[in-house]
Amino acid sequence: MKITDLRCAVIGQNPVIRITTDEGIHGLGQIENSKPYMKPHVLFYRDHIIGQDPTDVNRVVSSIRRLGSFKPWGSAVSAIEMALWDIAGKAAGLPVYKLLGGKMRDRVRVYNGAVRFPMKGATVEDYAEDMARMKAAPEGFTIIKQGISFHSQLPSQVPDFFYGDLQKQGFHGNRGPLTEKGLKHLVACIEAMKAVLGDEVGLALDCGPGMLVPDALRLAKAVEHLHIMWLEDMITGDYTPFVLADLYREVNSRTSTPIHTGEQIYLRENFVDLIEKRAVDVVGPDPADVGGIAELKWIA
């Protein structure tokens, strides 16, 4: 079997790729809906993979993986890798998880990171009300993740939340030291959300990127009594092309609150420092950015 073409169409805001073969089997892969601009980058890889055997997934991906990079530029390789697994599964007549070694468990705990309701504002009461709606949602999630700090509307809706110029271009560009007022408001919002959830539902927080180490440590210690599931991407994260494991270790070694990062990281090699230095408690590679499904398994 040989790859005959690589195509990409933006459907809605999602780049959807299709790899075709000379045996009539095709594979599909998808990039998240915030990246329609990735279509030309996907097509850049077309000439690199045509003529190769799509069922040799690792061989094909090894020929292009060095050409990707941290989020968002790893998403093209990731989508190609998933489409290759789709072909391999269809050719073998097996679900992809069987090709990757089979399942380890029948149930997996998942969190609510996408079932959302419009928030009225950024007050303590707004966060509590929003959390109550999510807790009551029929899906019955036992963990809810909420954007907070620089991963939320707080910098734009809370006056003097941080020291710095407000960035409005998107891609989580705000960063800098928090004001005392900003930190107190942040902690109050977290306390209000956890009061709503009680001990029935865990609360995870997506915090950045953009926080400095002193503020990250202050926040982590201030919420220790709340037993937060994790604080995510406080220092680096979405759309930052580096890891800074040593800075995370400064925070993680001095708090009992679990620290999390990794969503923007491309390839398993870039997780080595985080893991070997015990810089965080939780790594969170995104299979749609890290290099694909098998890359995720290598990290695990």
Which helices and strands occur, and which strands form pairs?
Blueprint: E1 3-11, E2 14-21, E3 26-30, H1 39-44, H2 46-49, H3 57-62, H4 75-92, H5 96-99, H6 124-135, E4 143-147, H7 154-157, H8 180-197, E5 202-206, H9 213-222, E6 230-232, H10 245-252, E7 259-261, H11 272-276, E8 282-283, H12 293-299
Parallel strand pairs: 4-5, 5-6, 6-7, 7-8
Antiparallel strand pairs: 1-2, 2-3
Helix pairs in contact: 6-8, 9-10
Written account of the structure:
By secondary structure, this protein is an alpha/beta fold. It folds into two domains: 3-99, Enolase-like, N-terminal domain (Enolase-like, domain 1), CATH 3.30.390.10; 124-264, Alpha-Beta Barrel (TIM Barrel), CATH 3.20.20.120. The chain has twelve helices and eight strands. The protein has helices at 39-44, 46-49, 57-62, 75-92, 96-99, 124-135, 154-157, 180-197, 213-222, 245-252, 272-276, 293-299, and strands spanning 3-11, 14-21, 26-30, 143-147, 202-206, 230-232, 259-261, 282-283. The strands form two sheets. A five-stranded parallel β-sheet has the order 4-5-6-7-8, covered by helices on one side. Strands 1-2-3 form a three-stranded antiparallel β-sheet. Helix 11 links the parallel strand 7 and strand 8 (282-283). Helix 6 packs parallel to helix 8. The longest helix has 18 residues, at 75-92. The chain is elongated and about 60 Å long. The model has no long low-confidence stretch (mean pLDDT 97).
Largest sheet: 5 strands, parallel
What strand order characterises the main sheet?
4-5-6-7-8
CATH superfamily of the largest domain: Enolase-like C-terminal domain
* Anisotropy-based shape: elongated
Q: Write the element-wise H/E pattern from the N-terminal end onward.
A: EEEHHHHHHEHHEHEHEHEH
Unreliable residue stretches? none
CATH topology of the largest domain: TIM Barrel
Q: Classify the helix fraction into a percent range.
A: 25-40%
Instruction: Just give the CATH class of the largest domain.
Output: Alpha Beta
Strand content: 5-15%
Supply the number of helical segments: 12
Radius of gyration: 21 Å
